[in-house]
Structure formats: structure tokens, C-alpha cells
Amino acid sequence: MTLLFQLTLYLYLLATAVYVVHFLSQHKQVRAAARGILLAGGILHTVYFVARYVAAGHTPLTSNHEAVSFFAWSMTWAFLSFWWRYRVKNFGVFVSPLISLLMLIAAFSSQEMAPLPPALRSNWLPVHASLAIMANGFMAMAFCGGVMYLLQEREIKKKKFGIFYSRLPSLEALDNLNQHCLALGFLLLTLGIITGSVWAKQAWGAYWQWDPKETWSLITWLIYAAILHQRLTVGWRRRRAAIMAIAGFGAVLFTLWGVTYLLGGVHSYVG
Amino acid sequence: MLAESIVIIGVNHKTAPVAVREKLAFSGDCAGPLLTLMNIEGCRECCFLSTCNRVEVIFVAGDPAAAAVAVRGFLFAKSGLADAEAQQYSYIYQGRNAVEHLYHVAASLDSMVVGEPQILGQLKQAYREATEQKTTGVILNRLLHKSFSVAKRVRTETNIGGSAVSISYAAVQLAKKIFGSLRDKSVLLVGAGEMAELAAEHLVKQGIGRVVVANRTLERAAKLARQFNGTAVGLAELTTQLAEVDILISSTGATDLILRKDEVKPLMRQRKNRPLFLIDIAVPRDLDPELNDLDNVYLYDIDDLKNVVDVNKAEREKEALRAEGIVAEEVVKFGQWLEGMEIAPTITAIRQKANGIREAEVAKTLSVLKSLSENERRSVEMLANAIVNKLLHDPMVFLKNSASQDNPQLKLAFVRQLFGLDKESPEQ
């Protein structure tokens, strides 16, 4: 099992390295290789997830290791699915390092399989947790899009064309990417919060009880709601949207880790 | 040597000033020149290329030196220049050098603006006309097809045509980096200068959705607008129009700024922050340089665009060096093919191929028939040997018996094709 995880991690790291080589050299074959390696990593990662499910006897989304690993998994598959319908030039070189970084964090977290605490024994666990984490995956992609936008915009604005100008897509394409990821991520986040709320009603008898994780999820949700709302009404798009996508991802990360380690609450993972 | 029969004689922008080139006076049609060229003594194949920067004759002749004089005479017939002067203004390449030169031309390494792709289309057109007049044969067919594929290799393996080297095209490329597709975008031309017209033309070619022209005199605006199927407005409407359009190209003769930061700032809110690309090609400048500080506004003046072009030109020079490597490699390959296009190497190649097949098949058969005695094994080998030799006898006689043949290359090409001796045959 550990071996499976490590193999996945190595594949992701290798894919990242090959994506960097492709970014510099721009050879098509190198990109194909990078994608192939990432795909292999994604498949192995799925196998690891299933194996862990079987071994633990419950959905493996209850420890930091499992949550972060699933976070990386959803990014990988979201990115690969983009390849199928919605291609963005050189997106991989920005997404794959983030995937690798998440996997490294997962690698250094405790991989122990703890028994499921009674409070989490519910069919809502897989639904709620996977929706919430997949939302994070799309927000992370929007973050990457935002970074790419700012890099590209900087070169156009400063009139100094460096390494990014020819390699990154047009500002319009990056802005669309941003909107696309935010909209999908927001939808998933909304569903994640609703399912969590329904589950809370069943488990604890109240839809909402201002647990720190709940509070911060709501704050994150409000931030993204504001971004999307402002975009449609007063035109927060382009540069500002890119900055907001990056800032919003900060809230996502705080909800994921900051709350757990600083504030505690029922969502604090076992172990 | 067959290679030495390939010759290129030509005049281009490097060897002759336009005053000389225009005297050669060839109109668009190639049929006339081609037929004249084919009448030259000893000229077996020819192709005639005429563009505004070059006139070239590519030909294959049995006696290249004599034919060259005649071809040069034909090229300069209308110029009234003596052959000595004609030699001074023209170039002649033979054999390997001719192949290399043609590859350079096709890959746009010999062009005035290195990497501009038009020349390839012109060369293809010249070749098409030559094939229509049936003036090309085995050698030029392969040579020209190869030159097209060399050009393609250079284009895909180097970045020679990747970046814009003219001001107006640089502006279009920038617009595409900002807006992606230009289909649903609009451009406002302020002032109707020549450069603005050129940039607008590029934008229209890239499929820009709408063109608006604003000018001091409405008449001129209307004329330009008609040309691009757009609308004309007065200069007073500048700010109202600016709330709508995506690109502005300014080229007025105004001595003062016509658009200031304070005027555009409130517009951006109205535009819901849709980006605005401002191109100022007027000298003195029309647009406030501080406009570039506004969010989602990108201002490029003529110097900025010139810088972009200079950087791109330097980049092309670098890529041209890489292209030279590809050309050199392909020249060697063509040389190898030419060497094979003689009788002796063709016979050797056929024998080698046949012997290869014979040996492989005999070995295969004998490895199955293990019970055979030594004598029987020898019989099998002799059988195979006899079949190969008897089957090859007539083709060999046919090949060697070329004394009376007027065009031995045609026969060689046919035989080589029949036996599949050249793995990569010229693509049709």
C-alpha cells in the first residue's frame, strides 16, 4: 500500500519534471510523454484509493493524508479531463507542481489507518467529503490560471517579452479558464456545504452549529460567491479576477489546514 | 556526373537593384518562358520562377555550360544588357550548390525578410505551371518536391516564421495575445494614415468583427470605412465609441494628445473592465503614455512596436542558423539519391536487394527442412540462385541497353520505382 502511494508520488514528480522540460523546449513529444506519465500517476492513484478503501473498510477521507491525497487526485483528473474538452496551452507545467506538492504533504502526514469514529459512520461521509475536496481541486486550478494570467499580463504590460509571452495562451483564454474553474468549483463547494449541513442535521440534530470548519467554509463560500457575483455585475474580470482567484485559494487552504491545526472542532481529523 | 547537370540561373534582390530587375519584365504567366526555355539546345527539364524579388530558372541540361549562356541570354533578353553585365547581376549555381540554393529559396532563407512564407507558395505555383507545360522530369520533380518538404521541415522544426517582423503584424499578434480570437472584437481607427490602414487590413484578415473609422474629415473616414465594410464617425464621438470597441489604432496628425488618462479611467468602469488595446502609431504621439498604468489597458506606441519587431528579427536570425543545419542535411540526402540515379549503382542496388531476399528465403527454408543431406541443401541453394539470376536477366539487359535512349533518367527512375529502390518516393 505504501509502495503504491510512493509509486504514484514518483510518477507525479516525474510528470512535473517532464512538464518543465516541455515548457522550456516546447517539443510536442515531450508534452505527450508528460501527459502519459501524469495519466499513469492518476490511474495508480485511483488504484491506491480503492485499495485503501478496501483495507480501511470505509471511505478513506478522514485523515489529513487521505484528504490531501484525494485533493491531488481530483486535481489530476480535473486537469486530465480538461485535455479532453478544454485545452489550455502549457497549463500542465503550472498544475503538476501543485499536484506534486500536495502529494509530498500527504507523504509526510501520518498514513496510519485509524478506525472510523462513530460520528463519521454515515453514508454522507463519501458524498460530503468528496464534494468538498473536489471543489478544492477546481479552486486550485483557478489559482493556477490566476498565476498564469498575472505572469502573462505582466509581460504584455511591461512590453518585455520573456519566457512566458510566447508560451502562455492569450489573456482571454486564461480569463475564461479562471471563470470556468471558479464556476465548477463554486457549484461543488455549494453542494459540499449543503450535504454537510444535511448530514449534520442527521448526526447532531442541527443543520448548522458554527463549528470552525463550518464557519470557514462559509467564509470561503462567501468569497467565491462575491467573486462570481462581482464578475457578472460590475465586471471584476481579467486582472482583478485573477488576483481574487489566488486570494480565494488562500481561504481554501486555511479552511483545509488552518482550521484543523489552529482552531480544532468536529472536523479535526483523527490522529 | 548527373548532379552537375542541375543548374540555377537567377537574379534576386541581393544581386541586382530593382532598376535592373524591372527591366527583365516577366509578366505573371510562365507558359511562354517555359516553352522558350525548353527550346534551348540540351535543356531537358526546366522550371521558371518569377516574383517581385527574384527571377530564377531551374533547369537540367546535358551540356550545362552551353545551356547556361543561352538561359542567361533569355533572362536578360529584354534588358538590353550585354552578357558580361548580365553575369555581374545574376548568379549561377550548379550541382550541389543549385540544390542548396533552391532549398534556401523554398525555406525562405534567401528572402528579403527571412522566414516570410509567401515564397513557398510562389515556388509551388511555378512548379504547378511547369508540370502543366510538362517541362519537368524525373530530376526536377523530385528536387522540387524535396524543396517543399525541406521548407515544411524548417517551418515546423524551427521558429523561423513564429514571430511578427513588421509593425502592423506585431500589433495584430499582440491583439491576439490579449483577446484570443478577434472574431467578436472591434477596432476603432482614429486618423486614416497608411500604417493604420495596413494594421486594419491585417486585423480584418484575422477575422476582426467590426471596424469603425473616426477622422477629422468625415469624407476620408467614410472612404476607409467602406473599404473595410465598417462605419464612419466624427472625431467628436471618440469617447462614446471607446466605451464599445476593443482595439484603438491612432494615427492622427494632431500635435497634442487626443486621449488622456482621465478620460479613459471612467470608461473602464462603463466597459466592465473589458480590456482595451491602444495602439499609437502617430508621431508626435496621440495617446497619453500614462494610459498604460490603467488596469486592463495596454498601450503600445510606435517605438514599443519597433522594439518588438527588432527582438523578433534577432530571433529569426538565430532560427535561420538552425534551418541551415536542416538544409545541409537534406542536400546530402538529395546528393545520395542523384548518385543512385546512374546505371551502375542501380544495377548494384537491384542485385543487392535480390541477393538479400534470396539469402533470407533460403535460410528460412533450410531451417525447416533439417533432414536434407548436404547435396540436397546445395540443390535448394542453386534453385534459388537460378531463379534470381534468370528473373533479373532481362531487366539488366533493358537497363544496360541505353545507348539509343534520349532520356536515360526516365528509364532509371522507372526501374528504381519498379524495384522499390528508393524507400521514400517523392510524394505526389
List keywords for this structure.
heterodimer, A: 271 residues, mainly alpha, 2 domains, 8 helices, B: 428 residues, Rossmann fold, 3 domains, four-stranded antiparallel sheet, elongated
Structure commentary:
The complex is a heterodimer of chains A (271) and B (428). Chain A is mainly α. Chain A contains eight helices and no strands. Chain A is globular and about 60 Å long. The model of chain A has no long low-confidence stretch (mean pLDDT 88). Chain B has three domains: 3-162, Glutamyl-tRNA reductase, N-terminal domain (Beta Polymerase, domain 2, 2-Layer Sandwich); 167-308, Rossmann fold (3-Layer(aba) Sandwich), CATH 3.40.50; 342-418, no CATH class. Chain B has helices at residues 18-24, 31-38, 64-75, 83-89, 96-106, 118-132, 138-157, 167-179, 194-205, 218-227, 238-242, 261-270, 302-340, 343-368, 374-400, 408-418; strands at residues 6-12, 43-50, 54-61, 91-94, 186-190, 210-215, 231-234, 247-250, 276-280, 297-301. In chain B, β6, α10 (218-227) and β7 form a beta-alpha-beta unit. In chain B, α5 packs antiparallel against α13 and α8 (167-179) crosses α13 (302-340). Chain B is elongated. The interface between A and B is medium-sized, with 20 and 24 residues.
Q: How are the secondary structure elements laid out?
A:
The complex is a heterodimer of chains A (271) and B (428).
Chain A: H1 2-25, H2 28-56, H3 64-85, H4 92-108, H5 124-158, H6 171-204, H7 212-233, H8 238-263
Helix pairs in contact in A: 1-2, 1-4, 2-3, 3-4, 3-5, 5-6, 5-8, 6-7, 6-8, 7-8
Chain B: E1 6-12, H1 18-24, H2 31-38, E2 43-50, E3 54-61, H3 64-75, H4 83-89, E4 91-94, H5 96-106, H6 118-132, H7 138-157, H8 167-179, E5 186-190, H9 194-205, E6 210-215, H10 218-227, E7 231-234, H11 238-242, E8 247-250, H12 261-270, E9 276-280, E10 297-301, H13 302-340, H14 343-368, H15 374-400, H16 408-418
Parallel strand pairs in B: 5-6, 5-8, 6-7, 8-9, 9-10
Antiparallel strand pairs in B: 1-3, 1-4, 2-3
